[in-house]
Amino acid sequence: MISKELVIEKLRTVLDPEVNLDIYTMGLIYDIKIESENQIKVLMTYTTPLCPYGPALKEKVELAMASLGFNDCQIEVTFEPPWKPGEELRLMLGV
Asked: Taking the domains of the chain in order of start, what are their residue ranges?
């Protein structure tokens, strides 16, 4: 079975186009559940509920998971808790 570490590595290839940083480092991935060799569940958020790149990010996550062999990729987008950049991320972004 594919490891969670490999899934995280693949998620690190999905970049948020606004800040050109991967969505895992940004903290947009809240949870990963590998249900079977073919099924994965990802709980994620966007930087804001009105993020114009949200649908594209979700699609990129689906494609990344499909490239690992997950035929059934269930992505749930939530805004609870609201996304806030952590201190380390704020330093990286210079804000």
From this structure: 4-85
